Fold this protein.
Amino acid sequence: MNRGLRGLHASSQAPQAFWSAPGSTYTGHHAYPGGLAVHEWLNARIAKAFVEGYDAIYHLSSDPKAIDASIAQAAPRWHDIHKVTVFQWRGDGSELVEYPIADTGAHHPLSGAEAILRGLPLPFVIALLSAHDAPTTVKSNSTQTGLQRLVNYIRAAAIVARRDPVALGLLQRASDGRFQLSQDPPRIEGHINHLPDHDYLFSNDSAATLIGTLRQVAVDYGIDPARQEPRFNCFATWCSRRFRISVSTVVLQTSGRQGLKVVIDREVMERVSPEQLLVERRPLEEVLLLVVVGH
């Protein structure tokens, strides 16, 4: 464990480029090269809309002490930065398995640890680590409130960063010795960062629907998903990246499996000239393999 943390702190180079990273686990939301950028882009836009909405209705932005728009909009952009670490691509087209820290995906407390190490403002760190659970007294599961889970995320991030969360001012000790959030009451930026991240609910379902359909469509292109898993992984990732998972789901809703195949065929035709098809005398399905899989 300590060796691993030393390696994390000593590394000056990301495991992969930000632009190549997926947004989540394989077959999950935005699970294609560039998916992380799309995920953060959408979350940031939703956060901006929340800031504008709260200002329009409650006039919060007019008072700089009430809401910090820069934190509310920066936190969604920072939150998933360590997905470049936990979701590295494998040679067979799948991804590394993300392990949990503090009962959530490791990328979450890791992003907080880096924010702490970089000396970013404490309100930003708290808002950042509120992405998975808002600082609320509403129960997040059968035993813990969102606020209690947020405290656990802060503790985990501080452990990884090798910092004392109480000395930093992130947490404080209650009279019974338990840790509690030092920010009382919690600021609204944490709630705002939590809410935009929920596109994953639609995108996860969309991904599951798309991958399931692609397993059927792949057979039309001579790919056996069960026996040729690496080739299918490349095929599914290419389709997800080219059409965006959520867009593909809309195609399935309106046109069905055949409609999706028409979209795939059209995309291949746009990347391969008719002359190439004619000279090589290959059917479209074989050309798709060359375009997507490379062999």
Observations:
- DSSP finds 14 helices and four strands in the chain.
- Residues 1-10, 276-282, 289-295 have pLDDT under 50 and may be disordered.
- The longest strand covers residues 171-173.
